[in-house]
Amino acid sequence: MTPPARLSAAIEVLADIAGRRRPAADALKDWGLAHRFAGSGDRAAIASLVYDALRRRASSAWVMGDETPRAILIGMLRLQHGLAAPTIAELFSGERFAPDPLTDAERTAIAEGSLAEAPPHVAGDVPDWILPSLGHLFGDTLLEELRALARRAPLDIRINTLKRDRETALAGLAHLAPAVTPHAPNGLRIPIGEDGRGPALHVEPEFLDGWYEIQDEGSQIAGALTGARAGETVVDLCAGGGGKTLALAAMMRNEGRLIATDDDPRRLAPIHDRLRRSGAEAEIRTPRGGRARADVLGDLDGTVDRVVVDAPCTGTGTWRRNPDAKWRLRPGSLSARVTDQAEVLDRAARLVRPGGRITYITCSLLREENDGAIDGILARANGGLTVLPAETVAADHAPGLAGVVRFTEHGLQMSPALTGTDGFYVATLERRG
Fold it and tell me: What would the mean pLDDT of 372-400 be, rounded to a whole number?
């Protein structure tokens, strides 16, 4: 497909997303099935155009004075890709498979449109209702952080130290031109192309041999902050596909007892293959008959050294990777997640022994899901839990992190502009003796 044809396809997919209010991944998949002539490179390029347009949806609409899929794509080409008006006009030629030629109004908008007078939620490309929560966290750096949240995310991997150390893996993966991550001790960053795509890491021989897992550096840091040690009993309470379970097993050197579970058995499905590939050892407890987590963990109550709660959340900290999610988020969704977080924290509190610890993790930037959730469990625990200072936890388990995170009332917050990672929050609680 020619570049103009890819633009036409991206406009078609954006129209489908807007018209049917569906995830971008679903719309892209359906487009690919309906246009089988498009090769993998074409589909990847179209996906990059769509996701970049969603990253800059509000600011592009403002600059163009129009919020149609076509206008948003044109605005993105100027704001995100930095294309000049003549270049955009060449792509929008109206020739075979190309989008219709630019109108006079579009040419004027490209030449004269500006974000100088745009309100913060437009300039930062976020829903307006969520701005107060983000402003509470970021303060004077709000716009800088929102702009970072609208950029593409890097491609990071975590070296599986059960099989290789980072230095050995760095040499063995030289064909991928990796660099060490700035903060995570076992992370490597893989270069991505101009289209935002990296190599197909999941088919590399080293991946199949279990050398590494694909994991954002922020998630790696959050895992390190759990402080899990060999010989302990550790529960990964919201294990999902097992990313943090594998990291915990490596930290524990497969010595001790590691139990992984999740409310939704479907989310646990990938964990078995991942454990086999990595050589990690963990006991998987799959709930049956609905929300039966209490039944599968009841024998562990009051005995666990560490409970890791990678809580279900709005995912606001991952908007670089999932830009369509920010436009589908509604206040009701936030309220539902807050309820879920209270439930898993209450369950964690029953599991942990006196002197044991709970590490609470979200990939959210919202106080309601972070410090607010900790406020709630402290009140419900009636003095049975205490918060450990995040500065101390960071110094113990991630030296050097203090200068690149925000310390909040109860925890620490990573962010794209300050930390260079997704927006992970981590707080640590201890059961009083």
Answer: 96
Under 8 Å between Cβ of 425 and 414: yes
Question: If DSSP codes are grouped into helix, strand and coil, which group holds residue 380?
Answer: helix
Q: How far apart are CA 129 and CA 134, in angstroms?
A: 10
Contact residues for 257 (Cβ-Cβ < 8 A; gap 6+): 232, 233, 234, 283
> In sequence order, what are the residues at sequence separation of 6 or more whose Cβ sits closer than 8 angstroms to the Cβ of residue 295?
287
Q: What are the tens digits of pLDDT across the range 271-300?
A: 999 999 999 999 999 988 655 445 799 999
Q: Which residue has the tokens 């203090």?
A: 402
> Starting at the edge strand that comes first in sequence, how are the strands of the sheet with 187-190 ordered?
179-180, 187-190, 155-159, 212-214
Indicate left, alpha or beta for 385 from its phi (over 0: left) and psi (-120 to 50: alpha): beta
Q: Could you give phi then psi for residue 305, rounded to 5 degrees?
A: -75, -45
Distance CA 408, CA 427 (A): 9
The span from the CA of 217 to the CA of 228, in Å, is 18
Global pTM value: 0.93
Which value, to the nearest 10 degrees, does the dihedral of the CA atoms of residues 13, 16, 19, 20 take? -130
Distance CA 255, CA 48 (A): 42
